[in-house]
Amino acid sequence: MAGFDKRVYSYEEAMDGIESGMTVIAGGFGLCGIPENLIAEIKRRGVKDLTIWSNNCGVDGFGLGLLLEDKQISRIHASYVGENALFEKQMLNDEIEVILTPQGTLAEKMRAGGAGIPAFYTATGYGTPIGEGKEVREFNGRHCILEESVVGDFAIVKGWKADRYGNVVYRDTAQNFNPMAATAGKITVVEVEEIVEPGELKPDQIHTPGIYVDRLIQGTFEKRIEKRTVREG
User: Fold this and answer.
1) Residue 165 DSSP class
2) Tell me, what is one Gene Ontology molecular-function annotation carried by this entry (predicted)?
């Protein structure tokens, strides 16, 4: 069974093969469930002209925000861009192309790409700038626009636990976009907090089957809190 062992033992090995101009799909929502160490390795490598698909672009100095510092991202498809001052500056100065995408549509683009579905119709965005220039059809009296799916050169994903065969479990809300992203990469790299022995994960616990995973690495995580709210008094 050694051929099914997905483990790698360095982040350099985990992101081997990434090059400038590639498309990267990143799991996570805000700072919850982001593949923070894989992102840091992309920054270390200094690759440029990346197209990123992610719910958002991290915050200043952390998460995908790290890749903005040296202008490694040229284009991003995201549903939310409001927590990053550098991102805002680059967008307003036309230094980065931002394609705003409804959150559900973004998730479905990843899921459909992973399922081998080239495109799908959705009512979301019809009659708005999102739908401009896209094919329109009517289903049951409702207008829908055609959205293409996405497959990335790399998908980078954060899990909670996995076995060495790449079967992955996510924890609570850190699941978010990660399962969809994991299916949609030509090379899918997953970093987890713990790698357990085969058989410790029950089949009905597994969120991402190992068939989707190419590389698996165990890491340590900072897990920053994006916004801390406490009660007064």
Assistant:
1) T
2) succinyl-CoA:3-oxo-acid CoA-transferase activity
Using alpha carbons, select from 3, 1, 11 the residue that is nearest to residue 156. 11
Return d(Cα 123, Cα 108) in angstroms, integer: 13
pLDDT digits (tens, 9 = 90+) for 140-193: 999 999 999 999 999 999 999 999 999 999 999 999 999 999 999 999 999 999
The residues, ordered by sequence, that sit 6+ positions from 140 with a Cβ below 8 Å of its Cβ are: none
* CATH class of segment(s) 8-217: alpha beta
> Can you read off the two tokens belonging to residue 110?
């990843």
Nearest Cα neighbor of 103 from 83, 125, 85, 88 is 125
Per-domain residue ranges of the chain: 8-217
Specify the pTM: 0.93
Which residue carries 């008094």 as its tokens? 233
pLDDT in tens, 75-94: 999 998 877 899 999 999 99
